[in-house]
Amino acid sequence: LNSLEKSEKAIKTLKEALIELTKEKRERKEKKGIKNIDIKAMITGVPNVGKSTFINSIARERVTKTGNKPGVTRGKQWINLGDSINLLDTPGMLWPKFENPHIGFVLAVTGSVKDEVVDLDDLAFHLIAFLKKEYPELLIKRYDLEKEDMDSETIDIMEKMASNRGCIQRGNKVDYTRIANILIKEFRSGTLGKISLERPSDFYGKE
Fold first, then answer.
1. What is the rounded CA–CA span in Å between residue 145 and residue 159?
2. Cα 71 from Cα 88, distance rounded (Å)
3. How would you write 42-90 as a 3-class SS string?
């Protein structure tokens, strides 16, 4: 399917789902003599997960601003899909606090919170620690490491990654910020590979 056909199919599927979900409520209103009922739905989620991109793809035009940073959508925006169906695009929302530190890590490393409020060097350090445990082969392949490197301390792995990528300052000092930015950028773009930061067992326990 080309992009237009995919868009048409997505809109059709979405409209059918919204019509089905609101069937009982619309029938109750129709019995009261209320006609020309609009269906209103809200698109919501954490920042930077593609809410506006999703709306643009089904609306077949660039009706909302999109970007690779959280906070691009500054306010509420109503998008008319036709057939009396409207979608409300909203700014991303986060929990007031996180009881599980890993949740904060996941949101930060995926770009769901602004990088300006995060220590990227520290974030990259934790990402390397996670990857060497869960996806060591991706680190080895992407950053010209050796299998034996995965037994090293995380900081040593980060320094070797920096050396292999030429992230060295004057005086042969490691440029931690530069290698951190490279790692996080390649992780977020998918260049590093397919990576899942969470598993069902993290929330529902092991079987």
1. 11
2. 16
3. EECCCCCCCHHHHHHHHHCCCCCCCCCCCCCCCCCEEEEEECCEEEEEC
Within the chain, which residues score under 70 in pLDDT? 1-4, 7, 45-50, 52, 56, 58-77, 90-100, 201-207
What's the pLDDT score for residue 60?
A: 61
Residue type, 101: P
Question: For the whole prediction, is pTM greater than 0.70?
Answer: no
Given a contact cutoff of 8 angstroms between Cβ atoms, the answer to whether 143 and 122 are in contact is no
CA distance 203 to 40: 31
Q: Of the candidates 140, 118, 134, which has an alpha carbon nearest to the alpha carbon of residue 196?
A: 134
Query: What single letter denotes the amino acid at residue 195?
Result: I
Give the tens place of pLDDT for each residue, 166-194: 999 988 899 999 999 999 999 999 999 99
Contacts of range 111-114, beta carbons closer than 8 Å, 24 or more positions apart? 111/47, 111/48, 111/68, 111/69, 111/70, 111/188, 112/46, 112/47, 112/48, 112/49, 112/70, 113/47, 113/70, 114/69, 114/70, 114/71
Q: How far apart are the first and last CA of the chain?
A: 40
Nearest Cα neighbor of 149 from 157, 137, 139 is 157
Cα–Cα distance measured from residue 101 to residue 123, given in angstroms and rounded to the nearest whole number = 12
Give the pLDDT score at 190.
93
